[in-house]
Amino acid sequence: MLSSRLKNVTPSVTVAISSKVKEMKSNRINVINLSIGEPDFTIPEKAKEYGKKSLDDNKTKYDLVAGILELREAICEKLNKENEISYTPDQIVLSSGAKNSITNTILAVTDPGDEILLPLPYWVSYSEIIKITNAIPIEVPTKKENNFKVTKSDLAKVVTDKTKMIVITNPSNPTGAVYTRDELMEIAEFCLEKGIYIIADEIYEKIRFNDSFVSIASLSENIKNITITINGFAKSVAMTGMRLGYTASNTEIAKAMSTIQSHIVSHPSLTSQYIGLGALRECEEDMNHMVQTYKKRCELITKRLDKIKNISYVEPSGAFYIFIDLSKVKEKYKYKNSFSVEFCQNFLEEEKVAVVPGEAFGIDEYIRISYACHEDEFLEGINRLEKYINKFI
């Protein structure tokens, strides 16, 4: 008999959609895929060279659990220079992707039955990772008029004696919203007062369209001490398949995560780590080029969406997603259980466009579109979305 923890864990919606798209394409069906949260760029050549050299130098044996020292030092330099936060290498833990980093964090800090706050809408895997680790996800309603950014008053309504942690995603997946310094300070001071740890998921940090980004851990030393920053190389350097993430935290938490990781994966792939090192040392120009491309795409897609009646969206300031409000469509749409799931299924079948249902993020009347693809592709996808919506309104 399988573990009882699986009873409440649901498969990843985005992975399921991706699998369906691959199946349709294998059957020679032309599908526009606007569901994937993956850059359409390749790893910069200078970063690849570091990986190739590491193989030529036979750096393929076991190494330090927390990651190679050179990369942890480079991450400390990056955090100091770009985020104005001072860390030492022993406070950095490299893992096999940001999901691994999040899992390590929750295992290190929580006990079974502890509650973790998830402001709505939230990335699909948070709630399931929390369930797998035997903690309890608590959804925190937020307001559309605030671009779904959580506030102190939102948190005060759901905090209990069992609340141990909150997850703040900045920039947000799925909305692309970015918190201001004042907004983060209010949340962080509340967490200090209540003794709540902060998971600051900043994986989309590089992909922002203005200079307003603030890392939570930079707000004060006390706030830094309760914050575990999650970051990595998947989105900023297109290293999704290389599986390389990291945490920055206080020394006690970092040591605990290293202990846990030593028994689960030992350490992430050395080749991936050397490619990540090359990216930090050599590829700032490549990363900036990607960000400028996303910014232009964002301008194109929002300009096109503005022409469609009966929908609205959260104005994105980062990441590469648009979170679209279809509540007016929902009023006229015939569905049995979940509007967004059935809408996306039918949209894929009829118009051959894959998008992600809002239910995956906790809000059913929305869908998420990714513009991490060629502009011709996402603009045609929006044309088909308008055509499909007009059938019902």
From TrEMBL:
GO terms for molecular function: transaminase activity. It comes from the Bacteria. It is an enzyme of class 2 (transferase). Its cofactor is pyridoxal 5'-phosphate. Its EC number is 2.6.1.-. InterPro entries: Aminotransferase_I/II_large, AspAT/PAT-like, NHTrfase_class1_PyrdxlP-BS, PyrdxlP-dep_Trfase, PyrdxlP-dep_Trfase_major, PyrdxlP-dep_Trfase_small. The keyword Metal-binding does not apply. Keywords: Aminotransferase, Pyridoxal phosphate, Transferase. The keyword Transferase applies. Residues 30-379 form the Aminotransferase class I/classII large domain. Pfam families: Aminotran_1_2. Belongs to the class-I pyridoxal-phosphate-dependent aminotransferase family. PANTHER family: ASPARTATE AMINOTRANSFERASE. This is Aminotransferase.
